[in-house]
Amino acid sequence: MLRTPYARSSGRGQVRIIGGSHRRRTLRFPQAEGLRPTPDRVRETLFNWLGQDLAGLACLDAFAGSGALGFEAASRGARRVVMLEAARAPCEALRGNVVQLGLAGVDIYCAEALGWMRSSREKFDVIFLDPPFDAGLMPPALEAAAGCLGPGGRVYVEQEAPVAPGPLWFILRHGQAGRSHFALLERSPC
């Protein structure tokens, strides 16, 4: 079972950035139901797959929660990072962490991810999809993400079951850590 790094005395969670210009910086976020930051070793694997330098890329962290994936992308030089979080307290914590880190090119939207992606005309090079486990959001999230993905873009998915994305997607890499199954996808060439 995955362990989430909660600071028990403060009633808040915390996660640290593991790479890039903000390596070792700690981010704090309020505890919320379904919020479980992607563990360090899974983030390390993901950013090995993507390459450590994301300079010039636009990234979308669609179910941001703690912001671990979006902040990792920003720390590794992404030109633009958009983080979406529907819950108010985590969203405000994300905004506070942007200020604390002094990050430019990072936008936080307190918005429901599926609706935002469906209405957005913006295109991204990398989209992170890590919705709350057991919520059944991955199929509609993948469908919505398809419309936001730029040419040659990739989608990272993390869920509670083995990844089987359907005919629209090709699995480039995949792995498992505890209860998390994760994969890096790209659009099928059909």
Helix-strand layout with pairing:
Blueprint lengths: L5 E2 L4 E5 L9 E5 L9 H11 L7 E4 L6 H8 L4 E5 L3 H14 L4 E4 L3 H7 L4 E6 L8 H9 L2 E11 L9 E9 L2 E8 L3
Parallel strand pairs: 4-5, 4-7, 5-6, 7-8
Antiparallel strand pairs: 1-2, 2-3, 8-10, 9-10
Helix pairs in contact: 4-5
Q: Count helical runs.
A: 5
Structural class from helices and strands? Answer: alpha/beta
Which runs of at least 5 residues are low in confidence (pLDDT < 50)? Answer: 1-11
- The CATH topology assignment is Rossmann fold
How many individual domains?
Answer: 1
What is the straight-line distance between the termini? 38 Å
Q: Which descriptor suits the 3D outline?
A: globular
Number of strands: 10
Query: What does the radius of gyration come to?
Result: 15 Å
Q: Can you list the strand order of the major beta sheet?
A: 6-5-4-7-8-10-9
Q: Largest sheet at a glance?
A: 7 strands, mixed
What percent of the residues sit in helical stretches (DSSP H or I)?
25-40%
Q: Mean pLDDT score, rounded? A: 86
Shape-level CATH architecture: 3-Layer(aba) Sandwich
Q: In CATH's first tier, which class applies?
A: Alpha Beta
Q: Provide the succession of SSEs.
A: EEEHEHEHEHEHEEE
Superfamily at the CATH H level?
A: Vaccinia Virus protein VP39
Summarize the structure.
The chain has 190 residues and is an alpha/beta fold. The chain is built from five helices and ten strands.
Describe it for me?
The strands form two sheets. The chain has a seven-stranded mixed β-sheet with strand order 6-5-4-7-8-10-9, sandwiched between helices. It has a three-stranded antiparallel β-sheet with strand order 1-2-3. The relative contact order is 0.16. It has one domain (6-187): 3-Layer(aba) Sandwich (Rossmann fold). It is α/β, with parallel strands linked by helices and 190 residues long. It is globular. Helices cover 26% and strands 31% of the residues.
